[in-house]
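Encode chain A's predicted structure.
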Amino acid sequence: MKSMTGFGKAECFNGNRKIIVEIRTLNSKQLDLTIKAPYTWKNRESEIRNELTNKLQRGKIELYVTVEETVDDIMTHFNETAIKSYYRQIANIAAQNNIPMPPDILNFILQMPNVLSVERQEDDENEWQILLEGIRKALIQVNNFREQEGRALMEDIFNRIKHIESYMMDVEKIEPHRIEIIKTRLQHNLIEYVGENTIDQNRFEQELIYYLEKIDINEEKVRLRNHCSYFISTMKEGDGVGKKLGFITQEMGREINTIGSKANNADMQVLVIKMKDELEKIKEQILNVL
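Encoded structure for chain A:
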């Protein structure tokens, strides 16, 4: 089982150019992909998306690609036409206003717009393959991180499932006593409001059986145990089970709620609240399961 939280980083080189790849992932119901890379790889975006989708499947995924270049990789060009034009205009203005030309005029002109242009070497197929290898190395790290986080999640969730099962055992201990209390209370109320001599014992037994059937929780207990068992076996299936586990928790919640509505006993209600608390914590953890 994997978490949707992960991080991976890889560095690769093409001559003197260092390409840095960083991938961060967080939980999300769907695939939410963001790619931030130099414009030269804009035409490769669909290939990058396919690579990320195939390896990460789901979650909020952010890919950052940065390039550190050396001077050798950067070619500069002076725009001679612009430099001459700036010089002529400044010289004409100086002559018309009897202003001497400054000695550092060239340094001033070089700071003007469009005088210096910077060109970077075009990325070739070889560099794309280097980048792709870097992305794949970062993806391995992300998946390793996700697996590590998934193991921690699995251990925590497993313990909480065991707590729910333990509370169910406590419910079973209370149940026989609960039925006796309900039977005694109903009989006491009948004696108080109707009178002991006017009670039809056969009819009372029939009504009591009918009432006890309505508050019987045996079916709910069986289903809840089955859901807990299925939940644990599903966790062991591997990655991509997050949504399935979410559906199982919904079914577990229904059974716990039904037990609570039928409890009619303060001690049992306390146990139901504890089960609900554990289930809510499980649901929070499931949100981060791939």
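The two ends are 7 Å apart (CA to CA).
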